[in-house]
């Protein structure tokens, strides 16, 4: 009963976060969803038995089922790895982790569909430039690049104006 | 020597040749040729006993399941004929390869695939197990695919078409094989063929006959699957000579012969084989007369000859079967020689087009001689071997009447069709010889560009003769064909046995060059006379034969199917491809609804929970968890949400401890800490607040979320945690859980059942999970090394403490750093202890690795700057090392029978853990060490690559590239071109010439 309630709560929170904007909230939702799934395994193992399942460690009649525990143990570590991967996706975007900014969507930028830059000084001005793709992005820029003068607005990329 | 040894030696030849290739380059062909000749000679002593009626049989268990699948080998007369062809023709072709390829060309993979093909083909003709037969059959297909695929930029499409067609046939064979195994109850080929079901169950026999014929038709390029063979001519000449003339296409013939005894007199078998075979023989000859590329002519001639063979097998009389077998030998000799000659002609004159080839008769006299002998043999001119075999083919057709299978009318119709195809053979032989070596151009009024000046003949003295080492391998089979014509009776004994293997009679064929005047001799004379007339009036013929018969070609159809199937796959994928991530909930939602409905249906009969199912403390945890969850959901601050999710995770971890899952609880706790650390490190690169969403959207999300939550609750409530009423036994626990609790100690010597399940009982499963972990680690690396990047969002708020004591990172971390320095050795020691004692107390590779990961995280938190904790070693290698250790130690399990089975290494070690008999070191601990390393590697990837500020503002990057003199906006996009090759990625972006060669060492940039 209690685990079923917890599974329901975690699922609801996870789904709510999935439907928000921004990758980080999706990642958090994923973490909660993995909790729900893991607890489900324990529910299947019958939580009425709660003694540690070590040989001779507790009365045999009260020992918990070790199989769900083994499943969940590896599942936790795998979920961790996947979480880290999703976090990686969250920070490898043009500006932030937004999942819905049509203008900045990587597919648009890569296919070269450019739109007029919004008027005003948005924080991410100039990022929609199509130049910074693929290999050049991370490697190859040394610390000295910080000293290169950045002239914002001096954009030669021929965006449609 | 036994059959097993022979097969093993052909396999061993692959690595041996590959290592020779390091030194010898293309000359490896000689080594391979000598080796195959030696193997061939070693099989010769078997011929005597086989003629005397002996059958060699050997068997090793392979998959001893309900149906015993064995590596069963069996060599009878039929297998012997094909084995000799495979080995000796293989030796010739490999010797030829040594001079065919230019020394500069990369040939290492060529020799590997060719020799693997020898192995596969030898295995196939000796296989006495249906599964093994199928495996080798598919193996030859794969070798063919790779050999075609490697030959240049134009090769992949034909290679894929070939693969699709032959693989389809392979599926037919698989279906047939499975039906036979199910219906006869044995996987042994020879036993299955003896089964009485073939006579009793007509439907079964007919279905299997169709499937076998289908498989053989695709492999042996029979109408309507003939198109792949000319298509495959993009492969180099030796591949064509061996796979597509002598050996692989004969696999289909072998299969038909092998199954011929059980299909004797089966109507549908005869109809398919005779009909399909004769159509193929006729259209093959017709197409050969249309073409100008001598290699294409050769390909269609092979198609035509194979059609002859298939039709003869369809006749099915012992005379016909014997004729088919001897023609297999004759065809392998003359056709391999001819294909090798095509390669030589192309080599020496740089063209294969008969419109261009000119005067080679004078410049290449030896080549001319070889080609003429081989072609005359193919045309069936006495006294060559091809004449003998063709005579026998005609005899085979005529025997249908003598044996009473067909009436005289049908027999003569079929025979005359065969005669017509033979006339075609004669005609295209003339086309090859006169076209390649004379000035004959083979063009008629129906040719496009009939006299537009394209394809001008080359100068008479442009070509020159090949080196003897080059043409010798082609000369040998041609000369053998000439000599064997006089002594065809040397094959009597072997082909007698082969015929008896491929039919149910005791017929003993006798081969001779001259047997007096007979019907078939008359027919041969007719063929030669009409053939001569056709060749002499070749100019009129060229005007008569249309160049295109149908408005579409078979290759185009196959190409449509290939691209169509790929495009269809893309369509299917599109249905789950969306930019609206909320839609990805659809599929899980559907499944959840399914479980929900199951829960509702089960509700009336679920019964009570086991007593003690829900305890007081649970409600405390749930209340706390609910608070954390609500906080997470409503929070607009990223950092707050991350911390709140961590709090919910701690509640879950605490619950695990209460549920008796110490190991799981520890794992959860450590993972939760690491997750929060990494997320907080990452958060500083993102805005502080989440993106705002519309109120209406929040409402929709809330409704959907509550719906999902309720369904999950109902399903979990109704379907779990009850007494085991649906399981056997009277306990409330699952029997499998009880089994682990009862047997773990006896079987694995472990006390910690959870760890034991991970490393002893379900080690393969764990190994798979390790691999997933490693892949995730590498995916992170790959994405970070190649993706877009953004600037760290340095918010004004964070600048407010610049100049205050809070900004002194080094001073502020001093206290923690000294604690860390003091604690560090203990954390490492703790990690090692947890790893060692996993079998006995809570711990194990996963937990130990996470503890060490915690050590690195702590090292991070106390560091004054990111760059000062930059790791100096390669964590990718740690992941690989861990996976390799786990995989390698699994091999030790074979000592006691199976992969990953734990083996006891030492007993009674004096360590503080263990049972009363002391600490037992098994290979399971080494496996756990592999887990340990892989998990550490993955954690380090996350911490080191995500935790560090190493991304660049796009402005900086652009400025940098401008400074490097590169254009900044240079992104050429390639639109997906489905018509060309939809197998390629739809998105190909090329970024100028920047990047790749510009990989400086500065991986980490501390942009603070």
Automatic annotation (TrEMBL), chain A:
It comes from the Bacteria. Belongs to the CPA3 antiporters (TC 2.A.63) subunit C family. Residues 95-161 are annotated as: Disordered. InterPro entries: CPA3_antiporter_subunitC, NUOK/Mnh_C1-like. Residues 95-104, 152-161 have a biased composition (Acidic residues). Keywords: Cell membrane, Membrane, Transmembrane, Transmembrane helix. The chain crosses the membrane at residues 24-49, 70-91. Its main location: membrane. It is a multi-pass membrane protein. PANTHER family: ANTIPORTER SUBUNIT MNHC2-RELATED (PTHR34583). It is found in: Cell membrane. Gene3D superfamilies: 1.10.287.3510. GO terms for cellular component: plasma membrane. This is Multisubunit sodium/proton antiporter, MrpC subunit.
Automatic annotation (TrEMBL), chain B:
Residues 704-794 form the MrpA C-terminal/MbhE domain. The keyword Metal-binding does not apply. Residues 967-1008 are annotated as: Disordered. Signal peptide: none annotated. It comes from the Bacteria. It is a multi-pass membrane protein. The chain crosses the membrane at residues 78-98, 110-127, 133-150, 162-182, 202-218, 266-290, 297-315, 321-345, 366-385, 405-429, 470-491, 511-537, 585-604, 616-634, 641-662, 668-686, 698-719, 770-788, 819-840, 846-863, 875-899, 919-943. Residues 995-1008 have a biased composition (Basic and acidic residues). Keywords: Antiport, Cell membrane, Ion transport, Membrane, Transmembrane, Transmembrane helix, Transport. Residues 62-104 form the NADH-Ubiquinone oxidoreductase (complex I) chain 5 N-terminal domain. GO terms for cellular component: plasma membrane. Residues 816-940 form the Na+/H+ antiporter MnhB subunit-related protein domain. It is found in: Cell membrane; Membrane. GO terms for molecular function: antiporter activity. GO terms for biological process: monoatomic ion transport. Residues 624-688 form the MrpA C-terminal/MbhD domain. PANTHER family: NA(+)/H(+) ANTIPORTER SUBUNIT, NA(+)_H(+) ANTIPORTER SUBUNIT A. This is Monovalent cation/H+ antiporter subunit A.
């Amino acid at each position: 009963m209690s685990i079923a309630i917890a599974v329901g709560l975690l699922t609801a929170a996870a789904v709510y976060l999935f439907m928000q904007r921004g990758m980080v909230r999706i990642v958090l939702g994923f973490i909660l969803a993995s909790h729900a799934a893991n607890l489900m395994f324990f529910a299947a193992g019958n939580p009425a038995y709660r003694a540690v399942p070590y040989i001779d460690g507790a009365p045999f009649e009260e020992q918990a089922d070790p199989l769900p525990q083994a499943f969940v143990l590896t599942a936790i570590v795998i979920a961790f790895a996947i979480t880290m991967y999703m976090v990686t996706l969250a920070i490898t975007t043009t500006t932030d982790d937004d999942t819905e900014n049509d203008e900045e969507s990587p597919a648009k930028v890569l296919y070269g569909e450019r739109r007029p830059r919004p008027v005003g000084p948005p924080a991410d001005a100039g990022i929609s430039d199509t130049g910074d793709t693929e290999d050049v992005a991370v490697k190859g820029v040394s610390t000295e690049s910080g000293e290169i003068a950045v002239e914002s607005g001096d954009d030669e990329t021929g965006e449609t104006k | 020597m036994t059959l097993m040894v022979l097969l093993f030696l052909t396999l061993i030849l692959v690595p041996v040749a590959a290592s020779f290739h390091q030194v010898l380059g293309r000359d490896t062909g000689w080594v391979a040729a000598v080796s195959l000749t030696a193997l061939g000679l070693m099989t010769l002593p078997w011929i005597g006993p086989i003629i005397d009626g002996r059958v060699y049989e050997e068997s090793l268990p392979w998959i001893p399941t309900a149906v015993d699948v064995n590596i069963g080998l069996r060599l009878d007369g039929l297998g012997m004929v094909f084995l000799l062809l495979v080995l000796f023709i293989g030796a010739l072709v490999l010797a030829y390869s040594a001079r065919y390829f230019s020394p500069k060309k990369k040939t290492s993979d060529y020799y590997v695939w060719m020799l693997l093909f020898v192995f596969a083909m030898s295995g196939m003709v000796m296989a006495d197990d249906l599964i093994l037969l199928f495996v080798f059959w598919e193996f030859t297909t794969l070798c063919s695919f790779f050999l075609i695929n490697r030959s240049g930029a134009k090769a992949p499409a034909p290679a894929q078409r070939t693969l699709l067609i032959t693989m389809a046939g392979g599926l037919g064979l698989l279906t047939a094989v499975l039906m036979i195994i199910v219906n006869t109850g044995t996987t042994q080929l020879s036993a299955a063929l003896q089964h009485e079901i073939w006579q009793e169950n007509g439907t079964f026999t007919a279905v299997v006959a169709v499937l076998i014929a289908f498989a053989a038709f695709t492999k042996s390029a029979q109408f309507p699957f003939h198109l792949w063979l000319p298509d495959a001519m993009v492969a180099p000449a030796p591949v064509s000579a061996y796979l597509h003339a002598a050996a692989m296409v004969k696999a289909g013939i072998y299969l038909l012969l092998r199954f011929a005894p059980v299909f004797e007199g089966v109507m549908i078998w005869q109809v398919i084989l005779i009909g399909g075979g004769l159509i193929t023989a006729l259209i093959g000859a017709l197409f050969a007369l249309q073409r100008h590329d001598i290699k294409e002519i050769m390909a269609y001639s092979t198609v035509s000859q194979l059609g002859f063979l298939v039709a003869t097998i369809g006749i099915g009389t012992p005379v016909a079967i014997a004729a088919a077998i001897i023609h297999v030998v004759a065809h392998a000799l003359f056709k391999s020689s001819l294909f090798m000659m095509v390669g030589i002609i192309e080599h020496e004159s740089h063209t294969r087009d008969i419109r261009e080839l000119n005067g080679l008769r004078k410049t290449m006299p030896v080549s001319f001689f070889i080609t003429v002998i081989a072609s005359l043999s193919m045309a069936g001119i006495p006294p060559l071997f091809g004449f003998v075999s063709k005579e026998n083919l005609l005899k085979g057709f005529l025997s249908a009447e003598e044996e009473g299978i067909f009436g005289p009318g049908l027999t003569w119709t079929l025979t005359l069709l065969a005669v017509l195809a033979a006339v075609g053979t004669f005609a295209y032989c003339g086309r090859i010889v006169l076209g390649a070596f004379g000035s004959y151009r083979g063009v008629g009024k129906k040719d496009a560009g009939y006299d537009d000046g394209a394809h001008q003949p080359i100068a008479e003295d442009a070509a020159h003769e090949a080196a003897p080492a080059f043409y010798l391998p082609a000369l040998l089979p041609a000369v053998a064909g000439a000599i064997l014509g006089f002594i065809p009776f040397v094959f009597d004994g072997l082909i007698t046995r082969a015929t008896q293997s491929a039919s149910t009679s005791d017929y003993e064929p006798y081969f001779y060059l001259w047997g007096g005047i007979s019907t078939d001799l008359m027919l041969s004379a007719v063929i030669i006379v009409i053939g001569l007339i056709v060749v002499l009036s070749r100019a009129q013929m060229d005007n008569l034969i249309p160049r295109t018969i149908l408005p579409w070609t078979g290759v185009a159809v196959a190409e449509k199917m290939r691209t169509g199937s790929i495009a269809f796959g893309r369509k299917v994928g599109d249905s789950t491809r969306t930019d609206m991530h909320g839609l990805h909930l659809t599929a899980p939602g559907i499944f959840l609804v399914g479980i929900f409905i199951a829960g509702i249906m089960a509700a009336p009969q679920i019964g009570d929970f086991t007593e003690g199912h829900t305890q007081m403390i649970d409600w405390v945890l749930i209340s706390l968890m609910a608070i954390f969850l609500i906080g997470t959901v409503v929070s607009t601050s990223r950092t707050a949400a991350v911390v709140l999710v961590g709090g919910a995770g701690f509640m879950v971890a605490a619950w695990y401890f209460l549920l008796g899952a110490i190991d799981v609880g520890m794992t959860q706790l450590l993972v939760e800490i690491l997750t929060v650390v990494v997320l907080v490190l990452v958060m500083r690169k993102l805005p502080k607040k989440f993106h705002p969403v519309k109120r209406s959207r929040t409402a929709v999300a809330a409704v959907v979320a509550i719906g999902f939550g309720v369904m999950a609750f109902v399903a979990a409530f109704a379907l779990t945690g009850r007494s085991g009423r649906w399981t056997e036994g009277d306990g409330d626990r699952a029997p499998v859980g009880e089994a682990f609790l009862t047997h773990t100690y006896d079987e694995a010597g472990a006390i910690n059942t959870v760890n034991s399940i991970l490393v002893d009982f379900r080690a393969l499963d764990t190994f798979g999970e390790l691999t997933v972990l490693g892949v995730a680690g590498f995916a992170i690396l790959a994405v970070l090394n190649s993706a877009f990047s953004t600037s760290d969002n340095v918010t004004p708020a964070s600048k407010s403490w610049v100049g205050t004591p809070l900004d002194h990172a080094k001073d502020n971390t001093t206290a923690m750093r000294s604690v860390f320095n003091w604690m560090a050795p203990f954390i490492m020691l703790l990690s090692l202890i947890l790893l060692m004692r996993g079998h006995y107390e809570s711990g194990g590779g996963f937990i130990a690795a996470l503890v060490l990961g915690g050590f690195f995280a702590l090292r991070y938190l106390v560091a004054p700057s990111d760059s000062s904790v930059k790791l100096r070693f390669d964590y990718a290698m740690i992941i690989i090392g861990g996976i390799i250790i786990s995989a390698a130690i699994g091999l030790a399990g074979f000592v006691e029978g199976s992969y990953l089975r734990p083996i006891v290494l030492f007993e009674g070690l004096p360590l503080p853990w263990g049972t009363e008999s002391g600490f037992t070191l098994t290979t399971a601990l080494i496996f756990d060490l592999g887990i340990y390393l892989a998990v550490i590697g993955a954690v380090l990837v996350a911490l080191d690559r995500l935790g560090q500020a190493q991304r660049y503002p796009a402005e900086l990057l652009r400025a940098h590239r401008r400074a490097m003199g590169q254009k900044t906006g240079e992104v050429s996009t390639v639109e997906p071109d489905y018509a060309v090759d939809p197998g390629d990625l739809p998105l190909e972006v090329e970024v100028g010439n920047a990047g790749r060669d510009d990989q400086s060492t500065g991986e980490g940039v501390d942009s603070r």
